[in-house]
Amino acid sequence: MRAGLSPADRLRLGALGLTARKGRAALSALGVAIGITAMVAVLGFSESSRADLNAQLDALGTNLLVVEPGQDLMGDDATLPETSVEMIARVPTVRSTAATYAVDATVRKSDRVPAAQTSGVVVAAAGPGLDAAVSAELRAGRWLDAATSDYPAVVLGATAARRLAIGPLDDGVRVWLDGQWFAVVGVLEPLVLAPELDAAALIGTGVAQQLYGDGDDLPPTTVYTRVDTDQVAATRALLARTANPSSPSEVRVSRPSDALEAQAAADKSLTTLTLGLGAVALLVGAVGIANVMVISVLERRREIGVRRALGATRAGIGSQFLTESVLLSLLGGLIGGALGVALTTAYAVHQDWGVVLPWQPVLAGLGCSLLVGTVVGLYPALRAASVPPTEALRSI
Amino acid sequence: MTAQAGRALQLSGVTRTYGTGSAALTVLHGIDLTVGEGEYVAVVGPSGSGKSTLLNIVGALDRPTTGRVLLAGEDLTTQSDARLSRLRGTHLGFVFQQFFLLDRRSALENVGDGLLYQGVRRAERRRRAAEALRRVGLGARLDHTPAELSGGECQRVAVARALVHRPRVLLADEPTGNLDSASGRAVLELFDLLHAEGATIVVVTHDESIAARIPRVVAMRDGRIESDLHHGAAV
């Protein structure tokens, strides 16, 4: 006895039922297509946005550690020792440090604005190298330099500039900072890694020392530290003790890139919801395919009988209908995958992200549709296989 | 062995009962029938006489309730369903009243389906299908679909499909029932020709005029063989 059907013959047989009823095949594949589209698109969106965030973090660096005062045992706000910046700079894995220092001052657009209206803009002194440490980019003007840091000059964060209604930086834009006019020399873009500086008005340490120093060094509020990329975790463990050896528990060390990643991960509720909807659509599509296949078996009892008479075994008939169901579902999966990729691409282009083709979701979607076609095809295939061969000769 | 070789089909004590208990209906009562190699037999009888049931059993589409059926020396009553399927595919060829060709496929593909379940590769199927179609006089119609062929031509495609794998026995169920008399005659002439070439043919019909041209006529009534006549001259 020779071998049974070849795989190519099986495929041809399975495709036969679909090509004979094209409209019905297309409609019944639609449900699966919608489900797979939704799943591929939503996974594609989140993959693209994550890729975008990763690109941003690559550009900004993930080796920034931020050292801040926490709270003391009594729950009061602690302060960092004045020496902490120097101490941290001595840690071998630290590449650079820069700090902001607290300045007891308020800033207003002009002296006519009542003193109480600070618009939530805080004043801080920016130590040298702060712009590099937080990857600051200027929207206009320039950063504080050796010359301007000793004079009444200020660089505004993006939010601060908006709240103080600072327009284009023509010559002579000034703000009223604690009883004195300060020239606005620069405005920053929003800072991804240090959003707390967006609402700050930054002045030079030199001028801060003169005006608010009271003879002492200013206490650092936040120390921004760039460390060796492969030593971030180890360095992070060291920094609290280094900054405040007497009470390390009063020091908070954070890694802003972690927070961004965590936030992106937390943004998943919508993704989960849409995935769920896609799964429901897939389920409905699966039931549709099962339904169409059962009807198809009823309609084709005669064909089944004739095939049995031509020598088809039960298994041969079953495999023909199972193949048909799998092909139907795969057709839906292919259409859905293509639509999902198209939607993802369109959305990524719209959002100005780099286009990331969601290969994994597409493969997962095809796998899903393969599974769906197999599972829902089993029952119709069994029904087809149980049609008796005498059906061939039954008179109409 | 030599005695066996001369018999294409042998039925002994075959009964077929549908249902059980008081609802049981016995359609065949102890049929004994032997068809030799190369014989051309008509099975005739009114509807309800059991001839379709007999055809189902002879065609290995159904099993007898009791009795034995030998096809080419092999006992069909003890075979598994899968084995019966293969026996149908290799030893039997079916011709149906309504042709049962696949609508959208060419004559060549329809006839090729007669070899599909024997695991014959596609190129070989097409070659042998073309040969079988030439044998039934449709060498010029290979790529026509059933819709493009006349009823008589469709039935000749069906005969080609039943012959393409060189079966031991060709079984035909009312082969001219759906044809006008000219097309019907052409199909019967084809059977005559095949018989002359040595094929074993069993035709089931209720039409006495068809039976009249077939050398051996088995008449059935109420599930029994009423008469079994050999009237030598035909064709």
Q: Could you walk me through the main structural features you see in this protein, from its secondary elements to its overall organization?
A:
Chain A is α+β, with helices and mostly antiparallel strands and 396 residues long. Chain A folds into 3 domains: 7-57 and 268-392, no CATH class; 63-101 and 222-254; 104-217, no CATH class. Helix content of chain A is 52%, strand content 15%. Chain A is built from 12 helices and 11 strands. Chain A has helices spanning 7-20, 22-60, 84-90, 130-133, 158-163, 205-212, 232-243, 256-266, 269-299, 301-309, 314-350, 359-385; strands at residues 64-69, 94-102, 107-108, 122-126, 138-141, 153-156, 174-177, 181-188, 200-204, 220-227, 251-254. In chain A, strands 1, 2, 3, 4, 5, 6, 7, 8, 9, 10 and 11 form an 11-stranded mixed β-sheet that branches. In chain A, a hairpin with a 3-residue loop joins strand 7 and strand 8. In chain A, helix 2 packs antiparallel against helix 12 (359-385). The radius of gyration of chain A is 34 Å and the shape is elongated. Chain B is an alpha/beta fold and 235 residues long. Chain B has a single domain (37-63, 81-230), classed as 3-Layer(aba) Sandwich (Rossmann fold), CATH 3.40.50. Chain B contains 8 helices and 10 strands. Chain B has helices at residues 2-5, 51-58, 81-91, 107-116, 122-135, 151-163, 181-196, 208-211; strands at 7-18, 25-36, 40-44, 66-71, 74-75, 92-95, 169-173, 200-205, 216-221, 224-230. In chain B, the strands form 2 sheets. Chain B has a 6-stranded mixed β-sheet, with helices on both faces. In chain B, strands 2-1-4-5 form a 4-stranded antiparallel β-sheet. The mean pLDDT of chain B is 90. Chain A binds chain B through residues 1-6, 8-9, 13, 16, 19-20, 302-303, 305-316, 388-390, 392-393, 395-396, and chain B through 52, 55-56, 59-62, 81-82, 85-86, 88-90, 92, 94, 96-98, 100, 102-105, 113-114, 116-122, 161, 173.
